[in-house]
Structure formats: C-alpha cells, structure tokens
Specification:
This protein is α/β, with parallel strands linked by helices and 428 residues long. It has helices spanning 17-23, 43-46, 51-62, 69-79, 107-125, 138-147, 166-173, 188-200, 217-232, 249-260, 276-281, 309-324, 332-346, 352-368, 386-393, 401-406, 420-427, and strands spanning 4-6, 32-34, 86-90, 93-97, 129-134, 153-160, 179-184, 209-211, 239-244, 264-271, 325-329, 374-378, 414-416. Helices cover 44% and strands 15% of the residues. The chain binds pyridoxal-5'-phosphate.
Length: 428
Amino acid sequence: MIRYYSTRDPHKNPVRFEEALLKGLAPDGGLYVPDQIPRLEPALWQQARSIADVGVAVLGAWLKDEMPLADLEPILREALNFPCPLVKLSDDLYVLELFHGPTLSFKDFGARTMARLMQYFLRKRGERRIILVATSGDTGSAVADGFAGQDNIEVVLLYPKGKVSAVQERQLITRRPGVRSFAVEGSFDDCQRMVKEAFVDPELAHLPLSSANSINIGRLLPQALYYLWAARQLPAERVNFCVPSGNLGNLMGGVLAAWMGQPVHKFIAAHNANHFFPDFLQGKAEAYGFHPTIATLSNAMDVGSPSNFERLYTLLGAEKLRAWVWGTTVSNEATLSRMKQTYDAYGYIACPHTAVGLEAQARYREATGDPTPLVSLACAHPAKFPDAVSQALGQEPPTEEALQILYSRPTQVETIGPTLAALKAHLL
Ligand SMILES: *Cc1c(COP(=O)(O)O)cnc(C)c1O
C-alpha cells in the first residue's frame, strides 16, 4: 500500500492517502510525500482514448487500497470531462492545452478531482471541512468552482487585492454556494502566511480547516495525468516537458509521471522574475530561503518561495534536481516578445504564463541543441489575459463564452487587512 509521510518527519511515520488528502499540510508543517511510486506499464496510458481513461488506469493503481475502482471511476469521469488537446507548433515543439476546464486554467484538473475525492471520503466519515485557500489568481477560482455546492465542504478564498487580472478577480468573486471570498490588502505571500497561521492557531483549532493549495497531494496526482496523456499522443518515446512554474505543483506532477514510467529526458522549469528555483538549479541559491514575491504579467506564477520545493528536494535531492531540471527566469519584456514571436511564427495566441514557458524552451534549445521533442504546457486560456495579449499583439484575444457568462453572475467579496486577526474575525 502506498503511504505518505511528512517532508519534516525524520521517522517517516506514514499516513493513508485519505488522511493526507483531508489534512493537506502535515501536523509538523511539512508536506506529504509518497513512500513509494508505483512503476506502471506505459501500455496503461498508451491505450487510453481520453484523459479520463488515463486517470482511471493510473489513479486506479495508486488508490487501489483506498477505494473501489467502481467508486473512483465515476469521480474521474466527471472531474476530467473536458478536452486536453496537444497542439503541434512544429516538428519538435508541441503545446499541451490545459485550459479547457470551467475556469480556463490547468488548476481545474487538480481542483475538480480533489474536490470529489474529498467529498467522497468526508461522506464516508460523516464529516465536514472548511477549505482555506490562498490564491495568486487561478487556484482560487478552480477550487471555488470545483468545490462549490457540496454540503460537507465550505470554501474560504483569500486573494491579494489589486494583484490579479480583472477576469481572474471576476472569477474569484462570482457568488457560489458554500464559497466566501476575501480581498486581502497585501501580497500573495501575506495570503499564504495567513492560511498557514490559521492552521496552527489555538482559537481556530475547533474548526475543521483544510487546505487545497498545490501542497495537497490530492491535487498533485491528477496533475501527473496530462503528462502521460501528452506522451501518449507523441510519435517519440522520450520527451522533454517545459513547465511554467510558480509553486512547482505542476512540475511535481510531471516528476510523478516520469517516476511512474514515462521516459522524460529533461524538465524545463520556466519562471518569471521570481527566480528562486532557477537560481537554485544553477547553484546560486543553496538553501531554501524566503524571497519576497515580485509582481509580473504572469501573475499566477508570482511566488517568491515555492511551497513544493520542499517536496521536490525531499524526493529528488539537489544533485538529481539539477541534473534533470533546467531552469530559467523570464522578464515581462521577454514574455511579451515571445507572445508576439509565437503569434507571428505559428498564428498561436499564448497567455503570458504559457509564453514564459515558450521563451524558456527556446532558450533551452539554444543553450543545449537538444533535439528531443518538447511539450510546453499551456496553463491558462489567453482570453483570461486580454490586457497582456493586446499589449503583445496589438489585438485582444477572441472572447470565450465561459467568460462572458461570468459577467452576468452576481458577486460576493469582502476586503480585509493582511493579518490573521482580520481573517479570524470572519471565521469565528
Ligand atoms: C498556478 C499556475 C501556474 C503555476 O503552477 P504551479 O503549480 O504553482 O507551479 C502557472 N500558470 C498558470 C496559468 C497557473 O494558474
């Protein structure tokens, strides 16, 4: 049976998936990591006809001691009910579009799956939860949408006021059953800190708090699936993946996919001006230190201290990470110019996050000459970022029906200061 232990537990006391999922963060403040990774036959995903098929085959193996496949399968078919196309830009460059879910970012994969898994285990236990989420843009809406309307789960969203795009904000404050949104007068790091403090605050100890940030193992596992789904559609066996990164949850999903048996030659970690991880990979930042967050055009990647670093470091160690992952940091100017180049060369409109990835993969190829086919992840729909798209291309992206419907919905939001006390006043 696969079990999960905390990155900070020297004794590696393991818990079941159900507990790691419902807890989110380990009681010692560490992150849960699996004590083994099942080695799976690539035939499992090579035969899949949809990403939901990949999910049933792969998560069926991961969770076989946790729940019957007959219960898991409908959960995955409902959660992963949107397309995930691999778009060919050139003979050796592909874009995997992860933005066709309801909130138009890759976060829908993890959030929708995790919401349904949590609901399943909570029902079994007759328990409820309050999910506290700090979001720099896309997590909150995916979580709010994924969890809304479930009788045993409430959602409390914190986002940095004025630091998300207009469309993202609208998605965050759309009124949904069981969801409360707070605009925090501070940064994303303030929001994350408030969530962390809430979890260890004695006055809140009686509340059934849980997290849904990318630290939750329940979000990481579904994020391995689309790597396998992409590889299944490629002519080559070995592949490079370029991952626009912030908290490194997406990259963690890719590492799990590789460990399950998908040959991955290199990962490219594409970061914006928040350069902690590329620095680490280049040997410039030895220890995990706090970096203040820098606001950029690719705001869902504005993370000074990536929380999943601790997990990657625990599982892989510095040497392996540096050998396997190539990283670079991309400025706003380079992001905009890559959006323009991508449009001119391929007629393809990339959102700023996707463009950070496309710029990084171009640099990687330039630096190494590596001919391995490369899949660059497209993390959000360009229609979510009309300002950046018009700045780069001189034209707005085509509108998306899902977004137009948004603007006709009622909203709900309260503004609070960047302190635990302010949050507590509302929770208690
Ligand atoms: C969350 C997000 C990222 C960063 O993903 P991490 O898992 O935090 O590394 C990149 N792009 C978009 C659009 C996102 O929403």
